[in-house]
């Protein structure tokens, strides 16, 4: 039950982070968004050490470094793919791929479920697609670039969960703090090159100036993303990788909730059905 609650909470908070990250990426380079939000998230995690602890052992640091590389690649690709769109297809595709990678890996390391457990996991994966899909007359097929970025995002995000599963259970936030530090370092190197390129382009410089009002979204993305890191770290230590990965894939639910509350976007019938299926699957998983 605790794993299901923590996994579901991870999904919601990740969805909040992706909402603000996608908004910021419409006016600011996705590399800049990910790099700056990573720095914000790093300092947020440092502030959480008194509450959750952090033991920087060799294994914790190695896990954090590996997760940092996966995060830098996966989250940047995610924000870039959502900015390209269409979100109605790209979001659930990336989410399902992000769940399938650790789900398959979990099977090989011994995760096993009864019939009810497999039914619950299947329902949640179906719910991911339903929740993330936005029907409408203007729905278009994604570009090759958008699809490629979605695949990279899914593989990267799934790899984060796999690596952090092997973080020592008594390390507290050490691995996710290391992950944030490595990811921020890598992305800020890319940010430096991006900034140098922008300085040579008057058009892009104007775009950055205009985008100043979007920095609040970058900060929010960093705080929510790091909060989700805490939730899934706790979830991974309380239950199986397969359960956590599938529940985490429900992050489009958090995105559409904020889109409804902040942007006043309408939640379609298909999405509402997805919410009901997700809740049903989670309830079954809790008792399976």
Describe this structure in words.
- This protein has 288 residues and is mainly alpha-helical.
- It has one domain.
- Helices cover 81% and strands 0% of the residues.
- Helix 2 packs antiparallel against helix 7 (174-199).
Total count of helical runs of at least 4 residues: 12
Compressed to H and E, one letter per element, the order equals HHHHHHHHHHHH
Radius of gyration: 18 Å
How would a textbook summarize the main sheet?
none
Could you tell me the strand content as a percent range?
Answer: under 5%
What is the molecular shape? globular
In whole angstroms, how far apart are the ends? 10 Å
Secondary-structure topology with pairs:
Layout: H1 2-25, H2 30-52, H3 58-84, H4 87-108, H5 115-132, H6 144-165, H7 174-199, H8 202-210, H9 215-238, H10 241-248, H11 252-262, H12 269-287
Protein traits:
12 helices; mainly alpha; 288 residues; 81% helix
What's this, in brief?
This protein is mostly helical and 288 residues long. 81% of the residues lie in helices and 0% in strands. The chain is built from twelve helices and no strands.
């Amino acid at each position: 039950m605790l794993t299901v609650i923590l996994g579901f909470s991870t999904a919601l908070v990740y969805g909040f982070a992706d909402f603000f990250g996608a908004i910021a990426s419409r006016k600011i380079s996705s590399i800049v968004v990910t790099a700056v939000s990573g720095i914000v998230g790093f300092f947020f995690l440092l502030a959480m050490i008194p509450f959750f602890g952090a033991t920087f052992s060799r294994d914790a640091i190695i896990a954090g470094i590996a997760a940092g590389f996966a995060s830098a690649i996966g989250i940047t690709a995610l924000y870039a793919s959502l900015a390209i769109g269409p979100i109605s297809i790209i979001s659930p595709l990336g989410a399902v791929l992000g769940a399938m990678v650790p789900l398959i890996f979990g099977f090989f390391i011994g995760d096993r479920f009864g019939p009810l457990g497999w039914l619950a996991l299947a329902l949640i994966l179906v719910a991911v697609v339903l929740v993330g899909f936005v029907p409408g007359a203007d729905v278009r097929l994604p570009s090759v670039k958008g699809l490629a970025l979605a695949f990279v995002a899914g593989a990267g995000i799934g790899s984060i969960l796999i690596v952090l599963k092997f973080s020592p259970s008594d390390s507290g936030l050490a691995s996710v703090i290391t992950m944030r530090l490595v990811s921020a370092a890598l992305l800020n190197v890319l940010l430096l090159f991006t900034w140098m390129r922008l300085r040579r382009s008057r058009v892009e410089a104007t775009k950055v100036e205009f985008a100043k009002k979007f920095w609040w979204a970058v900060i929010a993305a960093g705080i929510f993303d790091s909060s989700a890191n805490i939730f899934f770290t706790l979830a991974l230590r309380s239950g199986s990788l397969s359960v956590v990965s599938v529940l985490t894939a429900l992050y489009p639910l958090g995105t559409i909730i904020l889109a409804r509350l902040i942007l006043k976007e309408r939640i379609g019938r298909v999405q509402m059905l997805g919410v009901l299926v997700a809740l049903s699957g989670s309830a079954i998983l809790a008792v399976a």
